[in-house]
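Predicting holo structure, alpha-D-galactopyranose bound.
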Amino acid sequence: MSKLKKVVEKFRELHKDEPLVVRSPGRINLIGEHTDYNMGYVLPGAIEKNVFLAIGLRPDMDVNIFAADYGDHYVTSLDGLTSAWKLWPNYILGVLNELKKRGVLLCGVNIVLGGDIPLAAGMSSSAAVTCATAFALNEVFDLGLSKIELAKLAQAAEHDFVGVKCGLMDQFASLHGKKDHLIKLNCKTNEFEYIPFNSSEVSIVLFDTGVKHHLISSAYNDRRSECQRGIDIIKQNEPAVKDLADVTDEMLDKYLKLSNPLVYNRCLYVVEEMTRLKSACGDLERNNYAALGGRMFETHHGLKHLYEVSCKECDFLVDFAVGNSYVMGARMMGGGFGGCTINLISSGRVDDVIAEVRPRYKNEFGKELKVYPAVLSDGTRLENLISV
Ligand code: GLA
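Done. Tokens:
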């Protein structure tokens, strides 16, 4: 049974009602990692891995949520809404809370959700849930919020109810995704353009290390503060600087290199990544996938040695890619500390590469490597239930 059907049937069974259903995708990011909260560019795209969220209104103030994939229920009230002791309901409660904070009058809701985005694998299942929730509430309460407002709402929910001080990339990509396109997003202005990516020459393939990254317990928030520390130091001397997008290599050398080597490394990675992304966009325009791949390898090097957010499994998979002539580029993707690597592979050779990497990974780490082709898809939208 499809995930969509499972979610809809469960909703009908539990609530004897017809829901409104929203589909919200996960995302990849080709290049531009940890640049979003530093006000640089990112190059993500939504993918055909989705969260399905079925919603209906209630006559009272209760929030009744069922996670079909876990078979787990959570019920609370909108009156005195607080975060849950377990993690998963907070992605939904956080969005409700943001709307409450903005003075939106809500009534209770029934929600059933499920999907096929691997959890904690760096494909942003969490943003898919917050975006599905924000999109669904916008529909059922007819709030008239724009996609960018929904993205910010979803991001705020993650900050406040989950505790991850994430940037805007994941939410933006989930909501704005477009089939066969990447999104070049300027995180400083939120201006964006769609970049076509439907080459017959190369395929984007994700290798899932199976190492669950847990951003909260991880050093994600620390990295963000370390970057902020760098900005604060530079600002004392260069008042025009607002964020790392305004910072040059010379400033890093002058104000951080000797006095604060750790902060220097973090900021250097980000400033270099911002430059890399711009060059990568040029490579894409010229269909120069070899050059683009080379930059992905450089990104991984920076994430591993300067930003220090990689792990041995990601490093192993990238090292494999470096040594395989059919893989043009590879790097760890997302927040870090596990999850997936993103690989740019010659289209006719994807099966050969997978056949080679799987046994090697198994041999090294004693576990199966999961592989997902990344198919670029449209963003968050309503589902048509006629045939479900
Ligand atoms: C996570 C965050 C994003 C972004 C990436 C790293 O996915 O949610 O905002 O910072 O890590 O690029």
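The chain has eleven helices and 13 strands.
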